[in-house]
Design goal:
The relative contact order is 0.15. The chain is globular, with a radius of gyration of 21 Å. It folds into 2 domains: 298 residues, Probable tRNA modification gtpase trme, domain 1 (Gyrase A, domain 2, 2-Layer Sandwich); 76 residues, Elongation Factor Tu (Ef-tu), domain 3, CATH 2.40.30.110. The chain has 383 residues and is of the alpha+beta class. Helices cover 19% and strands 36% of the residues.
Length: 383
């Protein structure tokens, strides 16, 4: 018997209208500046990106990330199925573990980067969740659907049935603990469990995309507003701020976390992106394995690097990276770091062209600005 794919009602409804998260009305009522992000109406900021960025680094920031895809994979062959598709092995995972992995095509190109949650195991088989990028959700659902028919497994898209809230920052764990009977601090990093937050049943995890500690709450769509408002009212006086996509981007860039469509794409493989830790070779086979293995040690392939610019001019995606009179790469993301108070960027440079002298230049609107190659991440929290 082959596998099946199921969707929440209306989850893949074709329409030109932007999708809205269960928290959309709250964002609008609190003056969130709404933008189109991957077909979703999402807040880019409430006050200022810098203020929300500093709040997350110094206290706590709360983000609506309900636009990200949430897919379940269940059935006797669920682990076997995922092991054929993901760059990182899941068969040796235990319930409660979470792993970062990549979905690659046959050339080793990255289709998406995902978080794999091992939820539970029963007589019916293991149950996993994949959290995927909003912009890639349909692509990944189709990718799974086309391949699950060979397995005794089932793929369900729960995105629109649920909501997802992230709370990040030095006070994030204590804040969630106060509303969950200490549940978050009882877990190690990259772990998850079911429980109750603000009196609502949910799945709670401890990962993050900002460089800070914190947690993510996945709940029924109908419970999202109560959880969000309870957390916000309880901790606003203690520095918690609602944060938009703008601060989320500057935070992840400081932490050197790659973003799909910038540092990750179908023409980039995991080794180029510096994500060797997310590739488990061993003896198993998975889509893209051969190509990824062949790329090991290939000095002609562009490699992800960190860049710091002199002055205050900010590099942007697509700006050429130059050494002397030669273009050797291209910027993929850039910003003025609110924490470091310096312009930073990430980009790709062919390994064979990286000079011993780290002094390069970045061309911005026809002018060259000095830049240095520096180690990643740009920012790392104190342990």
């Amino acid at each position: 018997m082959g596998g099946t794919t199921a969707l929440c009602e209306n989850s893949m409804n074709a329409t030109t209208q932007l999708a809205r998260t269960p928290l959309n009305d709250w964002h609008v009522a609190h003056h969130g500046r709404m933008v189109d992000f991957a077909g979703w109406s999402m807040p880019v900021q409430y006050t200022s990106i810098v203020e929300e960025h500093h709040a997350t680094r110094q206290q706590a920031g709360m983000f609506d990330i309900s636009h990200m895809g949430r897919l379940k994979v269940t059935g006797p062959d669920a682990a076997k199925f995922l092991d054929c598709l993901l760059s990182r092995q899941v068969a040796d995972m235990r319930p409660g573990q979470i792993r970062y992995a990549l979905v690659c095509d046959a050339t080793g190109g990255i289709l998406d980067d995902v978080l794999v949650y091992f939820l539970t195991k029963s007589e019916q088989g293991p149950e996993f969740r994949l959290v995927v990028n909003a912009s890639n959700r349909v692509k990944i659902v189709d990718w799974l659907k086309d391949r699950v028919i060979e397995f005794q497994a089932r793929v369900t898209d729960d995105t629109t049935c649920t909501a997802m809230i992230a709370v990040q920052g030095p006070r994030a764990v204590a804040l969630i603990d106060s509303c969950s009977n200490g549940l978050l601090s009882s877990m190690k990093y990259y772990r998850g469990t079911t429980g109750s937050v603000c009196g609502q049943p949910c799945h709670l995890s401890r990962t993050g995309y900002t460089g800070e500690d914190g947690g993510e709450i996945i709940c029924d769509a109908t419970a999202a507003t109560k959880i969000w408002e309870t957390l916000f009212v309880q901790a606003e006086d203690e520095g918690l701020r609602a944060c938009g996509l703008g601060a989320r981007d500057t935070l992840r860039l400081e932490a050197a976390m790659p973003l799909y469509g910038h540092e990750l794409a179908e023409n980039i493989n995991p080794i180029q992106a510096g994500l060797e830790f997310a590739v488990t070779l061993g003896e198993r086979d998975f889509i893209g394995r051969e190509a990824i293995e062949e790329s090991l040690g290939d000095k002609t392939l562009p490699q992800r690097v960190g860049l710091q610019l002199a002055g205050k001019r900010v590099a942007r995606e697509g700006n050429p990276i130059r050494y002397q009179d030669q273009t050797i790469g291209e910027v993929t993301s850039g910003t003025f770091s609110p924490t470091l108070k310096k312009p930073i960027a990430m980009g790709y440079i062919a390994s064979s062209l990286v000079p011993v002298d780290p002094l390069l230049s970045i061309e911005i609107r026809g002018k060259s600005y000095p830049a240095n190659i520096i180690p990643l991440p740009f920012y790392q929290r104190a342990k």
